[in-house]
Amino acid sequence: MNIQARHLSPLILGLDISDINRAMELSRQVREYVDVVKVGLELFSAEGPEAVRKLREEGFEVFLDLKMNDIPNTVSRALRVLAELHPLMISIHTIGGKEMLDASLDTLRSWEARNSSRRPMLVGVTVLTSLDDFSLKEIGIRDSAEEEVSRLANMACRSSLDGLVVSPLEVSRVRREVGDEMTLITPGVRPAGSLSGDQKRTATPEEAISWGADFLVVGRPITEARNPHKAARDIFFEVKNTRSG
Questions:
Q1: Domain boundary assignment for the chain
Q2: Residues 198-217: what's their mean pLDDT?
C-alpha cells in the first residue's frame, strides 16, 4: 500500500450529499473510526473547493472522487488546480487512456517538485459498480466486467498510478495481477442485510477486505443509518477482526 495511506483507517466515509454542514456533522460523528472522507461530484458541485478545505480543517484527509475523464491537457490543467487543495487522493477514469494517465501523474509529480509538498495520490477508476456485464454490452464492451477491470487495472499499473478503484468482486484478481504496492479502494460495500441500491457488484466489508481491498468506501449504510456512529463502529471492527483473523 502507498506509504501515505498505510497508517490510516481502512474505512472511508462517502459523503454523497450536497449540504456541507450535514457532511461536517456526519464526519464528526464517525471521527473515532474514520480518517478519510470522500468528496464526490454532488458535494463538490454544491460547495466547490470549500468543501475540501473545511473537511481538512476538521482534521480529515480527503478522497476527492471526481472521476475525471477528458483529453490529457484538460485533465492535467484541472489536476494542477485541485492539487492546491491538498487532498489525499484524486480519482480519474482509466478509460481515458494511457496517455491521459501518464500526463496526469507527470503533472502531479511536477507539482510536488515545485511545491516541496506531498502530492495527492492518483487513483484510477476502472468499471463503476453500477455496471454489470449486460450494461457493458449495451455500451459496446464485449468483455465481462471482471475482464474489463483487469485490462484497465493493468494499464493503470503500467502508468504507475498509486491506486485503483475496483468493485469487491474483482479486487482479488486485481490484487494478484498488480501486486501489494498498489492501493486498492473498494466501493460497493454493504453490510450483510443492507440494500444494494443502484450498485450491482457489491459485497460485505468482511468479504472485500479478505479479498484484498485496502480501503472501503461506505456511504449510505452510514450516512442514512439511524446511528451513524454505531454503523461506522460496526463496519470498522468487522474489518479489524477480518484482518487480525
A1: 11-244
A2: 83
